[in-house]
Structure formats: structure tokens, C-alpha cells
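Predict the holo structure. Ligand: magnesium ion.
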Amino acid sequence: MIKIENIIAGYGDGPNILHGINLQASKGEIVTILGPNGCGKSTLLKCIAGFVKPRGGAVVLNDTDVTPVPANEKVRKHRMGYVPQSDNIFPSLTVAENILMGARFLPQATRAVALKRQFVAYPSLADKATRKASALSGGERQLLSLARALVAEPSVLLLDEPSAGLSPAMVHEVFVAIEEIRNSTGMCIVMVEQNAFEALSVADRAYILALGQVALEGCAADLIADPAMRHLYLGGDPEATTSSA
Amino acid sequence: MFDFLIHVSIMASLYAVLALSLNLQLGIAGLVNFGQILLFGAGAYGAAFAFSNQLGLAAGIGAGLALAVCVGLLFARLGRGLGGDYWGIATLAVAEACRMLLQTGGDLTGGAQGISGLPPLFEAGSRQDAALMTLGVCLAFLAAVYWLCRSLTHSRYGLSLKILREEPQLAVSLGYNPNALRTQVLVLSSMIAAVGGVIFAHYISFVGPDQIVAAETFLIWAMVIVGGVGNHFGVILGAVLMQFLFAFVPFAKDLLDMPSDYVAAMRLALVGGGLLIFLLWRPQGLVRERIGGGHRGG
Ligand SMILES: Nc1ncnc2c1ncn2[C@@H]1O[C@H](COP(=O)(O)OP(=O)(O)OP(=O)(O)O)[C@@H](O)[C@H]1O
Ligand SMILES: [Mg+2]
């Protein structure tokens, strides 16, 4: 479970980017964060992951205040997984090595099994297991970073635009995969997305950010149906978007 | 001639050890260390300090390792605040500053004259026998270091070192601690270089600040680049090749009938020229890095 209480954050001595954000995601829930470019979505995820230190407020994971805990500790102690928006693969390691890097805290005996499971889930990666990750296409890199985050079965998973750069068919596949993971493991997933309608169709709840504040929040199904929201934040008609997918 | 070959082989294997130590930092962990020779110097001076205090080889090794670990930790500490290239320049500055300190160190360090009279590793038998035994020690140590580097690289630990050079931030998000990894690899390679320095000090029987000039660091860099950054075997090849080329410069000088002061210049030209040629036409070096080395550890 993730609970964000009144987070205020910014970079260096720059201005505040987030102005008091509250957010909650329970076990087994998919929560999506939407909003225009530069509104602070990635910054919010970095605050949760521990890469940006909040200037105020608290990050609570599974009832423990983890605001001051460094990012690498959160992975070990709180089984957190985080896929950043960019630079999310190790280019000179092979595809298999990349995935294994995510399995640091798995017992030695289960690592090979976990790797195989990822290859079964993503056959396109299995074909390239021994190739350098730098030789993957943009979409394949995206899949690789997802596979690596999932190999250790985290209890909370933060995804920064997991469908960026994917073809419409792949976007659909990735969201189906995310939903399946949630169903099978009861993971708590928070994902930032630009493919708003796809994201809302798998999400339970959504937060829409604008200028570093929560402009709208609610049940995903209600938000899709809300014409004002569609017009203001999602830039169009759902039929037009989904029919092209 | 045979004595000369033994001497060149000893020097080649010691340089190969230094090149492996640099390769662990540069080739595996991506640490651009321009102060490599100081790690070697720490070992050599450790042996010399032990000698000038009437202590034996074991104390020399201990002192050399301790000094080298201090330098390694200092380098690691600098790495927390400085990004890659700036860190490299800082290591160069530290190495040069230490050299000057040693040069002006008075009685303790022997100043510019250094400390001489260190006993050879082996006293028994003829000089040639002693040299052969020293060569044996050097080769055994080189083999041990090579084996260590190889097993490290093929292990999961080696894999986590590799990500230091790629995406440290991403490594953090997977639970790794880049600062700790950097410190570990620096301490380990410092110790390797220091043992090389101890052996060298006893073999040459003299330790002085001229042995740790920055040009030596760049010679080691050239060996690594020519041999193949990231490939341990290639790096040994590069060290041996350059050392033997160096050794035959005086003969080339005689053949071409050039004055003796050209020897140093020709050596420099070899290092610079070799570096340029490889960087421009074969940046992967003689033997390229193998990918997928850490996969088997599964
Ligand atoms: N490392 C940084 N240093 C300083 N300012 C930053 C940094 N990263 C982001 N910002 C600023 O913070 C604001 C929010 O950035 P953020 O990356 O959180 O946006 P976002 O909502 O994820 O946008 P996008 O949809 O384009 O990914 C932007 O104005 C950006 O300029
Ligand atoms: Mg973003």
C-alpha cells in the first residue's frame, strides 16, 4: 500500500514543482496518474521511489513512513519496484543480464526460474536473450525494463510511462500484462501514463495532475465517462482513440 | 641477453598486474582513474618505509597494502561528490600532489633520491637464479590476479560492478549501492597494485618519486587501451607487447644509428602513437570485451 501525504517537492533550490499532493493506492489496486507534460508526474514518482527528497509531507509504504529511506533501501526492505521514464536499461549488458539485475534480492536458487518466467511472458525478449540491450528497439527496451522490474515480484510497483513508444498493439499487450500481474500477485501498481484511455481502462482509480496539484481524482470508470474531464484533460473522444488501437 | 629477457619479463608481468588493476576500475566499473600509479607507489613506498625501519618483507606488504587502501578510500570518497571525468582529474591531482610530498618529504621519504638498498626477494644462489625466482613470483602473482579478475567479471558481483559504468541511478532503483560498489572495487584494485609495488621495490632495490610520475599512469592506460578495455587477457597482452617494444627501443636506436637521448623520446612516441592508432582505428583494442560474461551465474 502506498500513501502520499501532502507532498511538496522541487529540484535543487528551484521553485516547488509539487504543491501538496495526496494520493493513495491499496494492495491489488492499479492507480494511474495522468496530466500534461511537465506537470510533475515523474517528479511525484521520484519522490515515492526516493530519488527526490520531498520538502514537506510524507511517503508511507505498508504503514511505515519511508520518507527519509534512500531509494536502494526501499527496494530491499519494502520490495519496491520502479521503472524510470528514460535511461531504463543497461545498454552493454545482455537482455538476460539486464533482467537478472532486477533479481538481486531473490534467493540464488529461484533466479533462473524467475528469468525463465519473464522469457515466457515476453517471448520477443527470449529470442534476444544473449544480445546486448543496446541493440533493442525502443519498444523492446520498454518491455525489457518492465520485465526486469517484475522479475523480483515487488509488492509496490511504480511505472513511469510503461507504454511510451510502443505500437498500439503492444500498448494493449503491456496493459493486459500489467493487469494480469495485478490479478495474480495482488501487487499495488502506480503508473504514470499518456495513453489515457488505455490506462483508465485497466486502472481502478486515477489522479489527474495539473501544475503540480491534483486537479481531479476518482474511479477510473467514472472519469472515462465524464465528458468534462475528457475534454479538459484527455484531449478528445474515447471512441476515436480506442478504435485506432 | 638472457638476463635482459628475464628483466623485461619481470617488468612486463608487473605492468600487466597494474594494467589488470586499472582494467578492473576502468574496463569493468567504468572508473576513469588517472592516478593509478599512486596505488603502485603506495605499495613500493610501503616496502621502503618498512625497510628503513628495519622491518621485513611481511611488514612491507602490510604497510604497502595499508597505504594503498588509504589512497583507494580517498579516491572513493572523492567519487561521491564528483562525476566521472572530474573524478579522473581529481585522481591525477591527488597522485601528483602525493608525488611532490614524497619528493619533499625529507628523511622519512628520502626526498628526490628516494630510499635505496632494499634487499632482493631472493638472496640465495647466483644473480640469475634470484632473478628467475623473482620472475616466478611475478608470474604466479599475475596468474592469481588474472584468475581473480576473471572470476569477478563472470560473477553476479562483476555484473553489478559493470552497471556502475552504465546507469548508476538505475542501479540504485534496483537496490544497488553505487558508492559501496565503487569503494569496494577501488580498495581491491589498490591492493592488487600495491602488491605489485612491493615486489617491484624489492626487485629494483630502490624506491623514488620518479617512479610514480603521471607518465607512468598514461603508460598503463596505453597498455589497457591497446590490449582492449574490459578484456583481462587483452590487457595482459597489451602490457607485455608494450613492455617488450620498449625494451627493444635501444636496439632500434643502434640500428638506426640515433643518439641515445632519442630513446626516451621514442618510447614516448610509442605510447602516444600506439594510443592514437588504437583509439582511431581499433578502439576495442587487440582483444575486445566479451559480452554476456555474467549470464551463466543465473
Ligand atoms: N532534474 C530536474 N531538475 C530541475 N527541474 C526538473 C528536473 N526534472 C524535472 N524538472 C522540472 O519539473 C517539472 C515537472 O517535471 P516532470 O518530469 O515531473 O514532468 P512530467 O509530468 O513527468 O512530464 P512528462 O509528461 O513530459 O514526462 C518540469 O517543469 C521540469 O522542468
Ligand atoms: Mg514524466
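The pocket of magnesium ion (ligand 2) is lined by residues A 41-42, 85, 160 (CB under 6 Å). Residues 80 and 148 of chain B are 26 Å apart (CA to CA).
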